[in-house]
Write a structure and sequence with these properties.
Length: about 500
């Protein structure tokens, strides 16, 4: 009998080690190594046979065995189909690609299962859909469907019933529900039913019986996703996979999980707010970093077609320390209101706090304002927040943050019809940003009349007053006129 060999797999990075260590040698995470049995598999290639073939073909001309040139590969245009939500179609690059694998991640309770249930309600009227609920029972899914007001779900149908014999999917399509955690049973059902769309909720709940590790471990997630990927590509099944996230916000499991799929979507949002952001971080069939905006209501998720109105504050009630920027998420411009508050500190070291803005960017802008403009902010508390809690990570928001901080420090009002666009350099200069024309058109559509942009930006003539600036000091002078103080307007 062959000796059983084991190795240790890190549950964080997936690295293998021949012996146990308290800390992973690869990612340096403590207590993350788990013992796993190494399966006895025959060698993939025979070195002796390869050597013999090489000697036989030394005198023959080289030729391809299975590879093809680009000209030999036939063109097959992608025929996308709609998911029923224009916001989701936008994030996916124009619709769902048949046979693609989509990984959906997000915090617990953010709305992943709710969105997928609403999607399959739309798709099941046109094609066969299989919903694998590995974390819930069929009764729980039916209760959620009733709560969402979804009346077309035929969840009373037993999964053992044969699929409809008619090939007219538009007339006899249905939604099949499979409460199962065994991967082999899921693969058998997918191979037998042959659905056009399948939902796996979630991948961490599935387990492969031949592996000794627990469900949700690195080995289980990797093997289950690989098996589902091979079957989906072979049978041309569109697969949506729900993935858990870690406490840092990344998708749990090995990084290979994101490499196997075609598209990776992240659900973002504050659990105390109603809006949700669906962000694309990887897309083999479209642009990345596209954003779809949804609103959570009592009947589920509702798409927001004009997100600028959601993240734009009330311009009739203007307060000191407020500036408006135009952020670009992918190809979508979003007008966002930034609020800053500068106040004397009561502690030895001043406090800095951000909501929606990167903390390190705030520290950098504070240092530029004090060094280049002489604004004494090192002994003052500084708080910056974006309206609605929208996460704005691009550098084009730097100039808006700087003007909001200066306005709060001087207790001045920024013209509510002015937008600010630009990146702040360490030398106090205003650097150019991309997609200026797109940002200005979005501001003009919402009624803004002035725009402060970096000097040297080229764009066609628009019906909006453009103020080009080269330094942060020039931008503050243009944004804060001498008489626009909070006390003078009262």
């Amino acid at each position: 009998m062959a000796k059983i060999r084991t190795h240790y797999i890190c549950q964080e990075c997936g690295a293998a080690s021949p012996q146990f260590f308290g800390k992973c040698p690869s990612c340096h995470t403590w207590n993350s190594l788990v013992e796993q049995v190494v399966p006895n598999t025959p060698a993939a290639t025979d070195g002796t046979r390869l050597a013999q073939r090489h000697r036989q073909r030394q005198n023959t001309s080289p030729k391809a065995l299975s590879s093809l040139t680009l000209t030999q590969i036939s063109e097959q245009p992608i025929q996308r189909f709609s998911s029923g939500y224009s916001e989701l179609d936008r994030v996916l690059g124009g619709g769902i690609v048949p046979g693609s694998l989509v990984l959906v991640g997000g915090d617990p309770g953010i709305g992943k299962s709710t969105l997928l249930l609403q999607i399959v309600n739309f798709l099941s009227a046109r094609q066969t859909v299989l919903y694998v609920c590995a974390e819930e029972s069929g009764q729980q899914v039916k209760l959620r469907a009733q709560r969402l007001g979804i009346g077309t779900l035929n969840l009373n149908k037993e999964i053992t019933d044969p699929p409809p014999k008619s090939k007219d999917k538009s007339a006899n399509a249905d939604l099949y529900l499979l409460p199962e955690t065994d991967l082999e049973m899921v693969l058998q059902e997918l191979d037998s039913l042959q659905p056009q769309v399948a939902i796996i909720d979630s991948i961490q709940a599935l387990f492969f019986s031949t592996l000794t590790s627990a469900p949700g471990s690195v080995a289980q997630v990797r093997e289950c996703t690989s098996a589902l990927m091979r079957l989906a590509k072979r049978n041309h099944i569109t697969l949506f996979i729900v993935g858990h996230v870690t406490k840092e916000g990344a998708i749990a499991g090995p990084k290979v999980l994101e490499h196997l799929v075609d598209t990776v979507l992240y659900f973002e949002g504050d659990r105390f707010a109603n809006h949700r952001l669906l962000r694309s971080v990887k897309n083999r069939f479209g642009a990345t970093h596209e954003v779809g905006v949804f609103e959570m209501i009592d009947r589920g998720l509702r798409e927001v077609l004009n997100p600028s109105e959601l993240f734009l504050g009330d311009r009739e009630e203007v307060s000191p320390g407020t500036a408006t920027i135009v952020a670009c998420e992918g190809t979508r411009p979003i007008v966002v209101e930034l609020q800053a508050l500068v106040s004397p500190t009561s502690y030895s070291s001043p406090r800095r706090s951000t909501t929606g803005i990167e903390y390190n960017r705030l520290l950098q802008i504070l240092a530029v304002l004090e060094k280049r403009l002489g604004i004494p902010l090192s002994k003052l508390d500084a708080y910056v927040a974006s309206s609605g809690g929208l996460s704005v990570a691009e550098p084009a928001a730097d100039l808006g943050v700087a003007i909001a901080l200066a306005a709060s420090f001087r207790d001045r009002l920024v013209d509510p019809t002015t937008v600010v666009i630009g990146e702040v350099g360490l030398g106090g200069q205003v650097r150019s940003v991309s997609q200026t024309e797109l940002r200005l058109k979005e501001a003009l559509k919402l009624g803004f009349k002035r725009a402060i942009i970096p000097k040297g930006q080229s764009f066609p003539s628009l019906d909006i007053e453009v103020i080009p600036v080269a330094r942060v000091a020039d931008a503050i002078v243009a944004a804060l006129p001498g008489g626009s103080s909070a006390h003078s307007t009262e």
